## 1
Amino acid sequence: MEKIRLGISTCLLGENVRFDGGHKLDPFLTGTLGRYVEYVPVCPEVEGGFGVPRESFLLVGAPENPRLVTTRTQVDHTERMVQWTRKRVQDLEKEDRCGYIFKGGSPSSGMERVKVYGQNDVPAKIGVGMFARAFMEPFPLPPVEEE
Ligand code: SF4
């Protein structure tokens, strides 16, 4: 039986790609659902060259067009992530994917309700991760979900 191909945030498969060197293994996705699908893992932060471990990121500014900034040192990596994302999304377009499973809450991979920090450093859960947004905008039809 041919398996369904799904994109997925790499950390959900148990790979140690998170900023702190850990993972977010989801046993349902790897076990139960994993029997029926072939995953195409993507970690925007590691593939974008930020390494493990790394300083964590957050989204700041306008929710519809936020900046990707490191949490402690406040370095703005938006352009770097935009450049990488553009190329990766083009590559993914060539692969035969039927959908995507995103890691919720991530400033890179979160699909919805990601914290965006505005004035006074008050976060609002109304953002979309930078990579998730770049993926969903040109591909509005494939189903997407968070873990
Ligand atoms: S949430 Fe996305 S960027 Fe963060 S570790 Fe997982 S795959 Fe990588």
## 2
Amino acid sequence: MGAAFSLAWPMTYLKTYGPRANPITGLTWGLMDLSLAVIAIITVLVVAGVWVRRERRSRPVFADLLVGREAGGLRWIWIGLGLTIVALVASLAWTVAVMAAVGMPGGQPALTLEITGHQWWWEVRYVGATPNQTFVTANEIHVPTGRPVLVKLNGADVIHSFWIPALAGKTDAIPGRTNLTWLQADRAGVYRGQCTEYCGVQHANMAAFVTADPPAVFEAWRAGQLRASVPAASPGKQLFVQRCGACHTVRGGEAGGVVGPDLTHLMSRRTLAAGTVPNTPDGLSGWISNPQALKPGARMPATDLSGPELGQVVAYLETLT
Ligand SMILES: [Cu+2]
């Protein structure tokens, strides 16, 4: 949180920040430069060819009517063929080398995440050595800088695709199978991502964020997330358990639903509903009173809380730090 460097907007894939993405960026620019060079060379040759023809106009007319094999003409074909083969084989070799380099992390991953695409948000499970070292959060992923992170992707309902452009290319999240990818951020900051496989009406409002922090800062965040949230009994807590607990979990409380995001440390997130609403008191009240107004079709129904009840629930949620 609060990192000075932010790629939250716009998303970029032409400038990347880690060994999972950098080789691909180099290849992209390299192939682009090669293509531009080919266009430039061919343009020059075509223009030169036109000029050469013009000069020949000055010769007697019948000379142009003769169909002959001018000396050295075929040589151009061989040169062109040779250059094309060299360029294509070099592109192929470079592509294969990049694929090998980014296929799997170089070292042992520092962290394993199980990320599940839901209509229309991301469930993020931090897999610990033991179950009590494991926790679940949503949409905002924290990672240590300079360390490879293994990501196991699944889809809960339809096919989604996980994409953090500045850190890692696209990998599909498919129901019933686990796809592996990985990422590594070499620079601290916030990187925005987006679901990139059309998955229904709110596909566009299905962002993900990766916050990369130095390892010590990340460990502090992780220790905070591992804590349960056990706020004192309050009317808001009671209402939450009754009205929201069937869909949401707050670890340490009585609410254990798994239909929606885990809200144990809701206040550690900057946005709500996969980047749709800022996580401010107003944003929170607006979302809870009428999610359908902000994200039509979202799998959270409008809650018919009265004004005072809404205030109590929001006050309770604000204790989930
Ligand atoms: Cu989608």
